[in-house]
Amino acid sequence: MRVLLVLMLAAVMAPVHCATPVIFDTDIGTDIDDAYALAALIHRPELELLAVTTVSSDAVARARLAAKLLQVAGDRWAKVPVYAGTSTPIQYMKQVDWAKAFTSPSLHESGAIEFMRAKIEARPGEITLIAVGELTNIAALLESTPGIAKKIRAISLMGGSIHRGYAAGSKPEPEWNIKSNARAAKVVFESGVPLLVAPLDSTADLKLSPEMRVELFARGVPLNDALAALNSIWRHTNTWKGENPTLFDVLAVDLVQPRRPYDLTALHVEVEADGLTRVVAGGAANAKVALTVDSDAFMRTFVDSLR
What we know:
Layout: H1 2-13, E1 20-26, H2 33-42, E2 47-54, H3 59-73, H4 75-78, E3 82-84, E4 107-108, H5 112-122, E5 128-131, H6 136-144, E6 154-158, H7 176-179, H8 182-189, E7 195-198, H9 200-203, H10 210-217, H11 222-237, H12 248-254, E8 264-267, E9 269-271, E10 277-279, E11 287-290, H13 295-305
Parallel strand pairs: 1-2, 1-5, 2-3, 3-4, 5-6, 6-7, 7-11
Antiparallel strand pairs: 8-11, 9-10
Helix pairs in contact: 2-3, 2-12, 5-6, 6-8
């Protein structure tokens, strides 16, 4: 009896490993990697998805797309709130037609920044923002609420170009998420919030091959079926003639709670007016940057996880 009591007390007193709360801020609907990143997040039980917020172009249409993808994933995910954030001039985003006229009690056509503010104020120091689109929503949150930067656990973002651009062996170039609103990116990089950064250096080679897509889509899982539909729309309509998706945004999800250790480099990164991200030697580090990744291992883990 005494041994049993000790074991029971040990179980009660054992540390509880809680999931890390996250908010996923996305421009889902233009490139296809946002949809894959949301699917990856759905398959990460160590991350607690509090909400999805959308940004740029028609943010409401993007929110419908995210909400429908969550509903397809199942009842638990259908309850995750989706809030539209800041809209901007219309961009290519043909995937949103897949969710045209979709409605859900979890879908909100505005309120992204207010939701983020309220959650962060209620759980100071706990919440990580995963930002995989332009940083307009995040900058608006930081600028509208003095002192809130100190209450954000971290921002894990896909963006920037440190030593290379989109093509292998190319020079650094303004990356889409940063150059789409360079002023907002500058606000984020100067905010003092701990930054986890997935730049082109480590993401531009994360290619989802035809063989990998067949493996994913042949599983007959509703979420994977939805990804197949969105991938087909993207494949046949994207304006840059892309064939094999590059999973830029998935790395930003993984950096929050890595499945394997990443070699992160502490850097002082500044954002130029044209969106170029420049490393300042000798400056106090404001970001931990994933400059390299084992692309083959990363992609294999991703494909295996979506079951």
